[in-house]
Amino acid sequence: MLDVQDVRKAYDGLEVLKGISFSLCKGETKVLIGPSGSGKSTLLRCINYLTVPDAGRIYLNGEEVLDTNIDAIRARIGFVFQDFNLFSHLTVLDNVRICQIKVNGKRKDAATERAHQELERVGLADKAGAYPAELSGGQQQRVSIARALAMDPEVLLFDEPTSALDPELTGEVVRVMQQLATEGMTMVVVTHEMSFARQAADEIIFMENGYIVEQGSPEIMFTDSRQERTRAFLNVIA
Ligand code: ADP
Ligand code: MG
């Protein structure tokens, strides 16, 4: 479904991705962990060219992601940001509908129906008419997930979706992600929520300093990690 091959990125001569390769099958959830500054966000952003990689190749369902097809590819890769990125001047309904209409070219009635479906799926059927500022952070993040889902993505990327939330609001967002993982959504999730990683991840990837240090199933990573660095990180965080 997604194949990332030897992706590299430097900022001002400083390499922050030093040859990253991994792949993701349909229906898989991979959780990406690692210290701050290890390159997790840069890697996610490179996958859909929000940041253009210096080298390497990325394939979505066999089609290479390139400058020339990036608009079409972006419509197939959903991205959920730490800070929600909702349009503050639009209602919840319009936030979930606008890309369906402007990017996917859907008719308004079809987009509206789908928006209501996805809002229901994330538990916000009653908030369609609200504005983002009237919602809690957890609710805003769930709207942003509904917006991504309404685009029928082949892959969903999450960059620390609960990091901007008060602790009591992370659970409602984690539960939605867990439900998506169970339903077979294909996703890459950068998160510090280790309970989510344990329960939902098919594989955990540990990144440090621009490299993938280790990857494996949650059972192996949490109990029998080969790498001292992974163990040290998990001891602090888990
Ligand atoms: P993480 O998400 O793991 O915390 P990032 O991918 O955000 O790591 O950052 C990796 C490194 O790249 C950091 O040293 C960061 O300062 C640097 N970096 C990220 N984005 C930029 C940018 N736009 N310009 C310059 N340096 C950047
Ligand atoms: Mg980051």
UniProtKB/TrEMBL annotation:
Q: What is its main location?
A: membrane
Q: Where in the cell is it found?
A: Cell inner membrane
Name the keywords, alphabetized: Amino-acid transport, ATP-binding, Cell membrane, Membrane, Nucleotide-binding, Transport
Kindly list the GO CC terms recorded for this protein: plasma membrane
Source species, domain of life: Bacteria
Pfam family of this protein, just one?
ABC_tran
This entry's Gene Ontology molecular function terms read: ABC-type amino acid transporter activity; ATP binding; ATP hydrolysis activity
Entry keyword Nucleotide-binding: yes
How does it sit in the bilayer? Peripheral membrane protein
List each copy of the ABC transporter domain by range: 2-234
The UniProt family comment states: Belongs to the ABC transporter superfamily.
Question: What is the protein name for this chain?
Answer: Amino acid ABC transporter ATP-binding protein
Organism from which the protein derives: Vreelandella salicampi
